[in-house]
Amino acid sequence: MNKQQLIDSVSERANLTKKDAEKAINAVIDSIKGALNEGDKVALVGFGTFEVRTRAERSGRNPQTGEQIKVPGGKVPAFKPGKELKESV
After folding, report:
1. Cβ atoms of residues 33 and 43 within 8 Å
2. How confident is the model over 4-21, as a mean pLDDT?
3. DSSP secondary structure of 25-82
């Protein structure tokens, strides 16, 4: 399912216009991004938790040359599914 299909589904299920459903979905996505940028977790009970995790620097290998390289660490977004979501799939 892509974003447009999600908008169509939300529009149909919530009895909203597609324009209103798109605004709602964009607002949710922007709110999650904003919270993650501030270092906060976003926990949706029954669905899951969005959080920022820190990756350590590690060594890797260039597949073309076989040369060892260092892969820098950094922050990455992560999602941990909730119990209800796991059980429904």
Report:
1. no
2. 95
3. HHHHHHHHHHHHHTT--EEETTTEEEEEEEEPPEEEE-TTT--EEEEP-EEEEEEEE-
Segment 50-85, tens digit of pLDDT: 999 999 999 999 999 989 999 999 999 999 999 999
Tens of pLDDT along 30-50?
Answer: 999 999 999 999 999 999 999
Q: State the burial class of residue 25 (Cβ atoms within 10 Å of its Cβ: 0-12, 13-18, 19+).
A: middle
CATH of 3-88, one of 1.20.1290.10, 3.40.50.300, 1.20.1250.20, 4.10.520.10: 4.10.520.10
CA 1 to chain centre: 14
Q: What is the pLDDT of residue 61?
A: 92
- Using alpha carbons, select from 80, 1, 73 the residue that is nearest to residue 42: 80
N-terminal to C-terminal alpha carbon distance within the chain:
15
